[in-house]
Amino acid sequence: MSIRLRLDKPWRPLSAEEAAGLPGQLGVYQIADTAGTILYIGQAGARSPFGLRSELQRELQDRGTGHQFRIEVNMQYRSRWFELLMVYKADHGSLPADNAKNPPPLGRLSPA
Amino acid sequence: MDFEPSEEQQLLIDQVRRFVREEIIPLEAGLDPDASELEPADHARLVEKTKAMGLFGIDIPKEYGGPDIDIVTRVLLAIEMAQHRAGLYVPCYGTFGGAGLAQIFEANADQKERYLYPTLRGEKKAFFGLTEPSGGSDPARAIQTRAERKDNGWVLNGAKIFISNADRAQYGIVFARTDASKGRAGITCFLIDSDTPGFHVRRVVHTLRSSHYATELEFKDCWVSDHQVLGEVNKGFAVANDRLTRQRIPYAAGCIGVAIAAHEMAIEWAKMRSTFGEKLANRQAVQWMLVDNEIDIRTAKHFTLEAAEKARRGLPFRIEASIAKLTASEGGGRVVDRSMQIHGGMGMTKDLPLERWYREMRIRRVGEGPSEVQRMVIAREILGSNLR
Predict the structure, then answer these.
(1) Out of B168, B202, B205, whose CB is closest to A107?
(2) Of B211, B230, B249, which residue constitutes the final position of a domain?
(3) What is the domain extent for residue B219?
(4) What kind of fold does domain A12-99 have according to CATH?
(5) CA B9, CA B66: separation in Å to the nearest integer?
(6) What ipTM describes this predicted complex?
(7) Nearby residues of B227 by Cβ (< 8 Å), 6 or more positions away
(8) Is the CB of residue B350 less than 8 Å away from at least one CB of chain A?
């Protein structure tokens, strides 16, 4: 059985309160605008002091309010991050706007 | 057989050891602990250094422009190249270059122009498409992907799994069944361009290696011409088998390199760390673990160099390669495990490379033929091939 390809959890408002309540674990996340357009797919790696919590607190500080997010706790944060980026690219033809500014080396995926 | 490095070999070993310690490990300290890639600028700079060292493309045969280093020396250097956090699967982050897949050297002149030379120039990358959802250890029977004759070519249908780099490669070497009635004598090897209609990389397969992923492939009415047959029709299994045997020697060397690095860390820690008023190094329980590490490393190194030496002399080395792969992957796993135990809680953290080595080393008991297949190869050799 394979894990779900796309991150389809409900969006949560990116606020100080929400971010502070996040686990300090490794994983991946998505940031979207209020309309639900994904702007960025990120990862919380082992260099993040408090994992997902640190990364989303940083995102809030950089972006300000008016955004949404969703997370996935995942020890395979790097391969999952690559996967989410490739799936997004396969679905939309390009990367999320903020990933496209500094794209990582990616392969091609054509999910069924 | 004398496995003491010659003066020339020792110079090369020292050169690579310095490169790992002075160039790779400092850069690695700034990367994610699971990273498998350097920043492009760092990679390019280090490639220039390995070229200046005369060691770039170390596995490329001399007639194709390689530095003409024998397999025993390459094993000794591979042991050094693996001694850093990412070293088991990405020794020195690929800055010593690669030779591509061994089978591509069997290509005809036209195929060499289209695939081999661009690969050696670093313009093309390849994937190796052998394992299928139906099994990987017994490819001769497990291969269900079939290729059928059509329009002066072949139509492939089927699936592959645990295939590395298929999403980034420009082409792949793919094995398919061309004669269902002939078992291993009914398999053919094809060169498949990644943009061929009907070729799909369907999903990422996540494993213990967060740093890197495998993929699952689908071939759906994927037509290729006769020009894409590598070698002869129905003789693909020999091509696969030869590669699998040869690959076991450097595979073992990587395990030994990581085991040495873990062991050295454990020795340092045991000399430094005190518990209950005594250095760990003074405790018999720890001493014995370190002794067992030493024995595992020496055993694996001996068998791996023996296999390499036989290969260098042009002697049969199938059984030796299996013993090398078996002792290095199993012994290496034990060494990393003991070294983690000696480090206690710190050994479990991502602050140290041990946890990554532990995860990745576990895969080594399965990859390139699991331990049980290696034992089967050895058993057949000592009991006779007709054993059933």
Answers:
(1) B168
(2) B230
(3) 126-230
(4) GIY-YIG endonuclease (3.40.1440)
(5) 17
(6) 0.80
(7) B110, B111
(8) yes
